[in-house]
Structure formats: C-alpha cells, structure tokens
Amino acid sequence: MVNIKQAVQDAVSTAIVQAAAEAGVDQDSIDLSQVIVSLPPSSDLGDLAFPMFPLARGFRSAPPAIATAVAALLASGNCIWIADARAAGPYVNVFLHRSRYTELIASDLTSAPEKFGRTSRYEGRKVMVEFSCPNTNKPLHLGHLRNNALGSSVARLYAAAGAEVERVNLINDRGVHICKSMLAYREFGNGATPESAGMKSDHFVGSWYVRFAQWAKEDPSAEQRAAEMLQQWEAGDPEVMELWRTMNRWTIDGINQTYLRTGIEFDRVYYESETYLSGRTEIMEGLERGIFYTAEDGAIMVDLAEIGLDTKVLLRKDGTSLYLTQDIGTAIARHRDWPFEQMVYVVGSEQQYHFHVLFHVLKKLGYTWAENLYHLSYGMVNLPDGRMKSREGTVVDADDLLSQLTSLALAELEERGRDSEVDDPQATAHAIALGALHYYLLMVTPNKDMVFDPSESLSFTGNTGPYLQYVGARISSMMRKAGFDMASAASIDYDLLNMDSEWDLIKAIGRFPEVVERSAEGYAPSELAGYLYDLGKSFSRYYHDTPVFQGVEPATAQARLALCGFVLAVMRQGFDLLGIPFLDRM
Ligand code: ARG
C-alpha cells in the first residue's frame, strides 16, 4: 500500500525547505527530522498536524509565521493526497483528500483483505522468537498462558511486518526437578499409567511431582535420592533413561494438546537434555582469548564491572556448566542452525539479571548478532483470590482454567439465548474462552504483574476479547442479512461516505499497517489490542447512529456496507495477530 503519511511528510518537508529559501534562511540551519507528525484531536482540525516550533531557531521567526508560510505552500502544492492545509497557531494542519484516500484503502481491501496490514518494514530480517519453555515435571500453568500469548503474538506481528520468523521452544526436560516426579512415580506408582488413572498425561506426571513434595516432607532422604537419580541419568543408566523417556513423552504429549487447544505452534523445538553441556567450548576459547579469567579455586569467571555488576561463574571448578553457560552455547548453536538478525526471549521478569549477563557475555565473545538480543520480560499473573503464588500444587493449571472459561462462556451464551443460533455451542464457547484469555493477557503491558479475572475477561461489553468478537459477529450477520459480498464491491461510489464518522473510520482503518509495525517494533501486542478496542468502539457508535442498509438509498447502502466490511477485514487481521478466534456468529 502507498504510504500516504510518508508522502504527506515528504510534501511538508519540501514546503519547509521552500519556505526557508523564500525567507532567505540557510538550509543547514533547519532540521527536518524534528518535525514530527501527530494526530489532531478532531477531524475539523485536520487529519495530520505538524508542529513548527522546532524550526523557530533556524528560521529566526515565530512558529505561527512559519506555519502560515508552510501551510500556504502546501495548500497550493502538488501532493495529490493533500486537499488543504491551514495554519493553527504553531501547527500546520493537513486535510487529506478524502475520496482519493478512501479509494486507495478500498482498492487494497477489496483486492486482498488478508494482506492488509502486512508491510515490508522488516523484509529480509530473520527474527527468532523463543517462548513457552515448559518443564517436563508438570503441566502448563497460567504464567505459561501469558508467555505463550505474548510469544505467539510477537512472532505474528513481526511476520506481518515482513520479517522471516522462527518460533522456537526450549523444553526443560532434565534436572533434579524432573527426577523428583520420576522417583515418586517409581516409588509409589505401581505401574499406573495416565490411561489407567484416567488423567491427561501431563497432569498425571504433575501429580507425582506433588506426591514427591509430600514425601520429602516426611522423609528427608527423598531429596538425596532425587539427586542420586540425576547422577544416574547423567551416567546414562538404562532403567532411569527408560523411565525418563516414558514420563517425558507423557508430559510433552499433554503439553502439546494444550498448545493445540490454544492455537500455539512452534517451528523448532530444543531440549535441554541435548543442550545442557553446551557452552563449555566457547567459554574455554574465551578464556584463551583473555575475555574470561580463572579464579583462585579454579572456576572460570567473567568480570561484569563494565555493566556495573560483580563477577559471575561460567564454569564451575569441576568443569561443569551452569544455566548461563548452557544458554551461551544454545544461543550460538541457534545462530548456526538459523542465522538470525534478532532473537527475542519471552521469559519472566525474575530472569532479568540472567539475560542481562547472557547478552553481555555474548557481546564480549564478539558475536555481532548479540547486539540484537532482546529479553521480553513479563510479570506474574495472579487470580483475583491471590492464587498462583506458586505454593506447591496450587498454581492455576492452564487446562483447568481453559475449561472453566469455556463453561462460563457456554453459560453466558445460554443465558443470552444464543446457543441455538450457533452450529456448535461448545466450539463457540471455546473460541470465546480463547478470545477472552488472549485479549485479557495481551492488553496489559508485559512487564506489569497482573490479575486475571475470569469473569471480567468474558464480559461481552467493555474492553474484552468477547466484546470484539461480538462486534465482528455483528458485522458478519449484517452482511448476511443484507446479502452483501465484498467481492461485488467494485462499482461502489465511495464519495457517498460523506459523514465525518465515516471518514474517521476510514482513517482508523488506514492506520492499521502502522499499528502493526509499531506493535512489532515495541514488542507490544497491547498497542494493537488498544487499537482494536478503539476501532470496535468507533464502529459500534457509527452503527448505533447510522442506518447502514435498511431504509437507505441503495447506492449509499452499498458504500456503507463496504465500509463495514473493511472494518471487519481489519478486525479479523487484528484478531489473528492476537490469537483471538473470529466468530461469524455468537
Ligand atoms: N525453563 C526455564 C524456566 O522455567 C526458562 C527458560 C528460558 N529460556 C532460556 N533460554 N533460558 O525458568
């Protein structure tokens, strides 16, 4: 799509340069990059506003005088997107050419609605996004749902903005915590299986982790035995390996079902059991190159004074790796596997220090791509009653929460008498539950702790996923009633969309590609969420105030229906980027 905003910005720059020349001002004393476009508070003040005060010094004249000169040049200039320009104090307010702008948006949206919002901003850039990263001793919990929603959305946003994206998962499938579930199962399980216990397989494994905790309270030797089991695992003891494989399969199968249920996918999966020894060679090389040093006790260390921190062990004195070492090796291996320009780690805020150090060490090792590593840090999610404070066994299970949301959504559908209107009420309820969950988790800035309120998230009114899904369904049902099909929208006279409310909707639609880019750039699905909510509200207001097709002159009805179709197309694209299922009725 033509970037109209850029075209207007260019025209403004040209006008400023010309105004400067006419006033005898030296070109070198004006800095065009300081002229930053903004959106005027209302359409009668124009569509785009450019403040002139940053130019006052270079021009040696008052901003309103500069604005007057620039506005006059723009108004009589030859940018086809500008209908008029007026000075208002220090601002130049630009009025766009409404019908040309509308025609442009309409042609993009009719020819390829699914491409609207796709841009080439990051074309040629490879972005790896790591997210989820569960442990195989228990099922996913609410924190993972936030992580998955963020990772998945950021990956889609970057892809929409033109990047080539690789979604990776790192499964923590080894360590003493894994051995704890294994040990308790071997001790007390009597050969039970998820099938015999009638449990989802990851929940089954999780129950043995809980059982271990109880056991360890009564019997202090349990912890010691878990540590021994880890040693056996590291030595490749066949029986332990066999048990490990079986139980890991159970957990991973179960977790995959949860991913499927929530629309979460990966392109590549790494396993800690395969990477936990990595990083050692790189650290030894760094030592030789004098980047690291050996401490008195023989451990290999890095001095972090450059980033205002203390020192940190990279290899223990017995030569074993740490979490950090492993991540160093893994990052390097990933870059070898898939040479990215940028990598994002979606991991909880409690690991800020870890990633700060990790990125620094990789830079010290001389990897240029290490400049473009980003820790997308997110806060805790609690339920209103304060659960999730990770007391053993009481974390909010992801599957249970989803089931709860689904039954609440089903109850709501029944109460509204909508269950008979949809083909499959259960599937619709599930889609509403996902919309509620993902929107609620994504509308908040990631770094903040948050409270997930199930019933609030499901409200059909207000700033929620179901509200947006409802707006989408309402537009769809109107299209059906009117028998309107976007494909036949070719002969529409868009000049009939002559109300300010219609122009405001068109401009909002036109901003979508830019919102996608900004949301990707800022790792901020919340920005897109806010945009969609505003669009939903503007549409609802319009729909409330304006008859679209009933009792409306046919040509006008066609134009209005097309406009509604454009809103719908943008909402669908936006839903997809946030992981909100679209429903054509609800
Ligand atoms: N599995 C880890 C945990 O539960 C998170 C791993 C994060 N990713 C990484 N590359 N370190 O805390």
Task: Give a structural overview.
Helix content is 53%, strand content 11%. Helix 1 packs across helix 3, helix 5 (142-160) packs across helix 19 (500-521) and helix 19 packs parallel to helix 21 (554-578). A hairpin with a 5-residue loop joins strand 7 (293-294) and strand 8. It has helices spanning 4-22, 56-59, 63-75, 98-111, 142-160, 176-188, 194-197, 201-218, 221-234, 238-262, 272-275, 280-288, 323-337, 352-364, 398-415, 425-442, 454-457, 465-482, 500-521, 525-545, 554-578, and strands spanning 48-51, 82-88, 91-96, 126-130, 164-171, 268-271, 293-294, 300-303, 311-315, 342-348, 373-378, 381-382, 450-451. It has a five-stranded parallel sheet with strand order 6-5-4-10-11, with helices on both faces. The model is unreliable at 388-393 (pLDDT under 50). The two termini are 33 Å apart. It has 586 residues and is of the alpha/beta class. It has 21 helices and 13 strands. It is flat and about 85 Å long. Among the domains are: 4-96, Gyrase A, domain 2 (2-Layer Sandwich); 280-320, no CATH class; 398-578, Isoleucyl-tRNA Synthetase, Domain 1, CATH 1.10.730. Bound molecules: arginine (ARG). Residues 130, 133, 135, 170, 172, 327, 345, 347 line the site of arginine. It is found in: Cytoplasm. One of its GO terms (molecular function) is arginine-tRNA ligase activity. It comes from Spirochaeta africana (strain ATCC 700263 / DSM 8902 / Z-7692). Belongs to the class-I aminoacyl-tRNA synthetase family.
- CATH level 4 superfamily of the domain at 398-578: Isoleucyl-tRNA Synthetase, Domain 1
**Oligomerization state of this entry?**
single chain
Number of strands: 13
Q: What's the CATH class label of the domain at 398-578?
A: Mainly Alpha
Q: Architecture of the domain at 398-578, according to CATH?
A: Orthogonal Bundle
How many angstroms separate the termini? 33 Å
Q: How large is the share of residues in beta strands?
A: 5-15%
Largest sheet: 5 strands, parallel
Keywords: Aminoacyl-tRNA synthetase, ATP-binding, Cytoplasm, Ligase, Nucleotide-binding, Protein biosynthesis
Domain DALR anticodon binding: 468-586
Domain Arginyl tRNA synthetase N-terminal: 6-96
Subcellular location: Cytoplasm
